[in-house]
Write a structure and sequence with these properties.
Chain lengths: ~270, ~325
């Protein structure tokens, strides 16, 4: 598929160029996503201003969870966040045009946009990540570095899988953007919390069904050497690749069914 | 190369495999709270390589549904469709490499980039090597007169420019079959003529097969040697344009503007007087090109009155189709 790769790379590059054409609006968007990131950071600060610990985490640990959750979600959002626009693509007939090209439909949807403005939120997350690692006095051992890398790479892939799973569903639910956002943004919100703030059933849901806890909370336990709790064992964190594979498995299934449904229903 | 080594040879010459073969093709749409709609109903036809086929019918007759099934966008409810010998659902990507499609209403260009970049991207998507991409783009740009628009963002193109660009985009990878859905809709006379000329030339030089839906009788007359008429999902007519005219009488209407108010132009040979406006300054006469010529009618009219201006109205496709229906029912 090397040559298919060339095509996707050319498409992605063109998406980047298109955004460079509108510098002022791009700068405004970028600034807006920085503000969003800061507003969410403020929320964490406010909570820990009122309570020293929440869900077994102190402020420094919460910062690390915040940073990883935001980094992975914003990176996934940058890459494939526009997948939730599928209903618009269906309505405008852009999906039909995808069918007329010798590339996969999903590949074309994923590369149809790159939301570079999300770099604003990513940069907030990166800065907070640096601060959290320094304040948490994290020593660069194979465990911490390995976990950090795994969390960033697989966590981003896991979040991207959520976007794709939800895009597949939207072939049925053409007005289902709200429903879709409940999964993606809901997952992202859950990822930002200590799993221990949730009652058991919710914690189990966000660990084993929509495994958002794997992107930030569980890795944080490993990196900081925190004990965790029931259904929140730090050792689980190393199963992140499996959780990612699970999400992508479900995502590809819903996507395939979605495409079949579209061909069956005709938009 | 797509040349089959062995082909059955009949008395009339080599018989090639059809480029489109549709057999009992049916598509039913189930709708919530409404009766199921059979958009395409047991359609059967074949198109041979090199043919130019007009696919016409009223809005909602099933034209777009058929095209979607031929290109793998829609699954048939029953029956089969094979396009360039492939199953459109199973071999969609391979099909996309060999077929070009222009949907008048849906653009395959990147609206926020200069036109040139759309061609570059499509060349990458179709894996054309640099030399071939440059040569082919250059050809199309010249033939479709797109040079001045290459640097413009697609969103700023006029409709005529955009349609020509869409056609170029669909033909970039030199497909053996080109499907055009309403390619001339909304175009001015000059743009239409240019586009038709280009399609005729493409067909002549490359033997490209054309399948087009249109509401414009002019498209059919100038481009197609065969017409399929679809009505309520069924094939109502399959034959030549002359045959179609023979079935329903493809009448044209001569509109004459006279220098002064005149009596109705009754009794011009082979014509039917349709009416007058402005106390007879403008009059309309229908004639069948099978019986007489526009020149003969004009000569007969000029003997009686002085002409200031004239125009000929093409038969309206909806009207032709309507008459097919009434003739067949």
């Amino acid at each position: 598929m090397a040559s298919g790769f060339t095509a996707y790379r050319a498409i992605l590059r063109s998406r980047v160029r298109a955004q460079q054409g509108y510098r002022v609006s791009f700068a405004t968007d970028l600034f807006a996503t920085v503000l969003t990131g800061l507003a969410e950071l403020l929320e964490v600060y406010v909570i820990f201003h009122n309570t020293p610990r929440l869900g077994g985490l102190d402020f420094d640990a919460a910062l690390l969870v915040f940073a990883l959750a935001n980094l992975t979600f914003a990176a996934a959002d940058l890459l494939v966040g526009h997948c939730d626009r599928l209903p618009t693509y269906v309505r405008e007939g852009r999906i039909d045009v995808f069918y007329l090209r010798p590339l996969s439909i999903l590949g074309q949807l994923m590369t149809s946009e790159v939301s570079l403005r999300r770099l604003g939120r990513i940069s907030v997350a990166v800065v907070v990540l640096g601060i959290a690692l320094v304040r948490g006095e994290v020593a660069p051992t194979p465990t911490t570095v390995g976990m950090l890398a795994l969390s960033i790479v697989c966590g981003t892939a896991l979040m991207a899988g959520l976007f794709v799973a939800v895009a597949g569903l939207q072939f049925w639910l053409v007005d289902g953007r709200e429903f879709a956002n409940a999964f993606t943004y809901g997952g992202a919100y859950a990822a930002q919390q200590s799993s221990l703030v949730f009652p058991d059933p919710v914690r189990i849901f966000f660990t084993f069904v929509v495994p958002a806890a794997f992107t930030a909370y569980l890795p944080t336990l490993v990196i900081l050497g925190e004990p965790g709790g029931d259904f929140a064992d730090p050792a689980l964190a190393w199963w992140l690749p499996a959780a990612t594979a699970w999400v992508w498995g479900v995502a590809l299934l819903t996507w395939r069914h979605g495409v079949r449904h579209y061909q069956g229903a005709g938009g | 190369m797509s040349v089959e080594p062995v082909r059955p040879v009949s008395a009339s010459g080599p018989v090639s495999a059809p480029i489109v073969a549709v057999e009992g093709l049916t598509r039913v749409f189930r709708r919530r709270g409404a009766p199921a709609l059979t958009a395409v109903d047991a359609m059967t036809f074949r198109i041979a390589p090199g043919e130019a086929v007009g696919y016409i019918g009223a809005n909602g007759a099933g034209k777009s549904t058929t095209i979607k099934m031929l290109t793998g966008i829609l699954a048939p409810t029953s029956g089969t469709a094979r396009t360039v010998g492939l199953d459109p659902m199973r071999d969609r990507r391979e099909l996309a490499r060999r077929v070009g499609v222009v949907f008048g209403q849906r653009s395959q260009l990147w609206w926020d980039l200069p036109l040139r970049e759309s061609f570059d991207l499509l060349a990458a998507i179709h894996r054309l090597d640099r030399l071939r991409a440059t040569r082919r783009t250059g050809q199309l740009v010249e033939l479709l007169d797109l040079g001045p628009t290459l640097a413009q963002p697609v969103r700023s193109l006029s409709l005529g420019q955009r349609m020509r660009a869409e056609v170029a985009a669909a033909l970039l990878h030199e497909p053996e079959l080109v499907i055009l859905d309403e390619p001339t809709i909304g175009l001015d006379v000059l743009s239409k003529a240019r586009l038709r000329e280009f399609l005729i030339q493409t067909r002549r030089e490359h033997g490209t097969t054309l399948l087009l839906t249109t509401h414009d009788m002019g498209d059919i007359e100038r481009l197609c040697d065969r017409v399929l008429v679809v009505d309520h999902g069924r094939l109502a007519f399959d034959g030549t344009l002359a045959g179609l005219a023979g079935t329903v009488g493809a009448r044209r209407v001569l509109v004459v503007d006279l220098d002064r108010p005149s009596e109705p132009l009754h009794g011009i040979p082979h014509t039917q007087w349709l009416g007058a406006e402005g106390e007879g300054v403008r009059q309309r006469l229908a004639f069948d090109p099978a019986d007489t010529t526009a020149a003969a009618v004009l000569a007969a009219v000029s003997e009686r009155v002085t002409l200031r201006d004239l125009s000929i109205e093409e038969p309206d496709i909806e009207d032709v189709v309507r008459r097919i229906y009434s003739a067949s029912s």
